[in-house]
Design brief:
The protein is mostly helical. The protein has 13 helices and 2 strands, in the order ββααααααααααααα.
């Protein structure tokens, strides 16, 4: 609706009502803020290059199937044949861990950058309830990371399968297992971004947020593996399967102990939800 007001000089100025601020507009503002950061573009490009590039390198490095079979004894050939059936999966997902680290850095920067520059105060002034801002950031970041993961995972399969097929291995780019693996990898990177965003909101520090997120994704599995191997403690070995990075590999189609696909999804969802809820609660209670 438009109205008109008259100044002392008699000039008429039209005024347009923009309506009240709703969640859709908060999402749009967060989308604009995300893409005005130069780090967003380069981070996403790095994730795609890592996934596709490492998949290509691994696929090229794997020897021909005939050569591999000839290297082992007749008694070991059955085991080698069984392992070779998963080579396409292994090659296509080899870069997923590195991509998750890059996406985690982006997730932390999205929130910690606003704390460091003071922009978060402007955001909370415009949206005093605060949660819509955090919810919009989460939604935008998840969609962007999910799409980047989907594209990079599909491209890695498209690169790895033809190379390995030419070497005598099996691989079907359009099988249901492959399509679910691609979808799972994309969803995992999206949830990693949400997890890292929550960690960044909790710690309010770029260095601390990145250290915390990468510690959980990279360092914690290494420590758990070392402790489980050295102490031979069964519960530590079993607990490794419920780490976000191991469950994420399970979402991408790799074996993660005896966990079913739904259990891998649920595990990653719990990690992301805990970080998200913790970050949202602290944003409501602490000063910006």
């Amino acid at each position: 609706m438009s109205t008109a007001t008259t100044t002392q000089q008699g000039t008429v100025h039209p005024h347009t009502s923009l309506g009240h601020l709703n969640f859709a507009r908060v999402v749009r503002s967060e989308w604009i803020k995300l893409w005005t950061l130069r780090s967003t573009f380069w981070t996403l490009i790095s994730a795609v290059v890592l996934v596709v590039g490492i998949a290509a390198l691994v696929a090229v490095a794997i020897p021909d199937k005939s050569t591999l079979v000839d290297r082992v004894s007749a008694a070991q050939r059955a085991a080698v044949e069984a392992q070779a059936a998963d080579f396409a999966q292994t090659a296509a997902t080899a870069g997923l861990t590195f991509a998750s680290l890059v996406i985690a850095v982006l997730g932390v920067l999205v929130i910690s950058g606003e704390f460091s520059t003071g922009m978060i105060r402007s955001s909370f002034t415009a949206v005093p309830r605060r949660f819509p801002v955090f919810g919009a950031k989460t939604l935008v970041l998840f969609v962007v990371a999910f799409l980047a993961g989907l594209i990079s995972s599909a491209a890695s399969w498209a690169v790895a399968v033809p190379i390995l097929t030419a070497k005598g291995y099996t691989g079907d780019l359009f099988s249901s297992d492959t399509l679910w693996a691609i979808l799972g990898a994309g969803a995992y990177l999206g949830l990693v971004a949400v997890f890292a965003l929550g960690v960044g909101a909790i710690l309010k520090s770029t260095a601390g947020g990145i250290a915390g997120a990468l510690g959980v994704l990279l360092v914690l599995p290494i420590i758990a593996s070392l402790v489980g191997g050295l102490t031979r403690t069964q519960w530590v070995t079993d607990a490794q399967h419920y780490l976000i990075s191991n469950a994420g590999s399970g979402m991408a189609g790799l074996a993660n102990g005896d966990l079913e696909p739904w259990a891998n999804v649920l595990t990653v969802l719990v990690w992301a939800a805990v970080a998200f809820v913790g970050g949202a609660l602290l944003l409501q209670r602490r000063d910006a």
